[in-house]
Specification:
It is built from 16 helices and 10 strands. By secondary structure, the protein is an alpha+beta fold. Helix 13 packs parallel to helix 16. Keywords: Membrane, Transmembrane, Transmembrane helix.
Length: about 550
Amino acid sequence: MSLMWDPGDLAYLASCALLQLALVVRFFQKAWPWRRRVATAFRELPKFAGVVSQWLQRPCDSDRVLRKQVSQLQLEFAQSYFSVGAATLCLSLSSLERNLLAGHPRPQFFTALATWNGLLYSFCLVATWLPGILTLRTLNLWCLISHVFVAVWLSPNGCDAPHAFAVRLFCLGVIQVPCLLFVQSWLMACVVHLGVAGIVVLRALLGDAEDAAGTIFQHPSTLFGAELIMAACVGILVRFLYNSFEQRVASRLRESHVSSQLDAASGLLQLTCEAVLELDDDLRLTEHCPKLAAMLLRGGSSTQGLRFSEFVARDEAARAEEILRGSSSVAQAFHTHLVDSCASKFRTEVFQVTYQVPSGQHRHLIGLRDFTDLQSLAGNKAADAIHDVDRELELYDGLSSLRGHSESVPEAGIHPPASSSVESNMDGSHGRRIVEQAVALQGKNMFLDIDCQAMQVCAASAPLTSLIGRGLSEVFVYNYTLELCMRLWHQAKQSQDLPDNMVSFERMPLFCLPRTIDISGIMQLSRTSLGDLHVILNFRPSAFVQL
């Protein structure tokens, strides 16, 4: 018997063969470079299975917390799903009830068994509203119950053959996929899904050809392939949705962890600072800070939305903003001057903690500490600290060692950075007090008698008598001045006789309220009638700054 091929069929078969050949060639082209990796993976499969088994049996703490939170989210989803499902199914049954009361025939795809099956399933869904019925331990059971009802609907008595495939798709999308999202065991998920698929295929194999004529159940092989495709699609979809659950929970955990870290940092800043505030990506206050308003004497005016640079001294605002934006570290500190509502400036230590919010924007947690009369907590680690202090002290130690064996020591000059250098290193003369009016002090020698043990000025010449009794931190602008003075005093205490050591300085800033002056002169040791060692500053003002 010879076969007569239609030319159109031959062209179709040739095109299909060509396409399949191209797919096979492309597959081997992609798979050939991976042949060694695939072989290695197959050889290490037993080892990988052991690792996975060990991981499943003994999860780490973080994985255990993640699974617990995901399970709780699945329970919330199941409660919402069953509540909506019960209401929807009850409405569908009421529509069927109205048709029966009106004398209309039952729809063809609703058999008597399907009607009673839907009613019984509605009762089960309503039962989930009771407390203690739907819990984490019973989620697998409810998934099994739902799939049992699906199997009954897909049985020969549950729906007729022409509508079986439509009912199958409906049950897959409305019942099976949601139930697989909250199942707690992947083994249970595979069993219930394969059970329903097996019932559908078995019905196609054992069904009457006459009943199946003209439907998809006429060809069991086609239905079997459709079930494989649906199983793959369901697996991918469920896995994708489950990963979204995990990502949502992981995001919650990260936010909680970041929030706890910020609370700890904020609590620490609250202990050491007068005001703690938060800045957005534009360095504006995200909310009103009452402590900052009180610190700046602003009364009840709101500080929300104001730029941080508005509170900083005009000549230091740009530098402060540059430090806040340009920090490459998570935490840092720097010094600047804040200005209150009375235009008074005060030295402020700024502590900054930078973090990122889930939206991707940066936030800055800022702590403000007034250290006008106090020592800096950050010290030389602050962004605007003097970096030449160590070099100055090392130079002083070297000069002192050279003078150690001499009774008469010549004057040795130790010069801090010049005015231009200081202004460059300190970025706009951080720590200087701006004068309100010019006072002609140049050309007059002045003296300060410093008691290093009491850390205060015990005597002063005119017009500096206002400094008497003040602490050294209120007199010296920079810490290196105090350190040089204390180093000179400590070395004198180690010697029985009063050493003839002197330290010269140039353009050293000195607080002389209400102004700051630059002085040049020498430091020299002295001894009082009671035997106490003091340090005498003999200097001459070299500059003043007009406000």
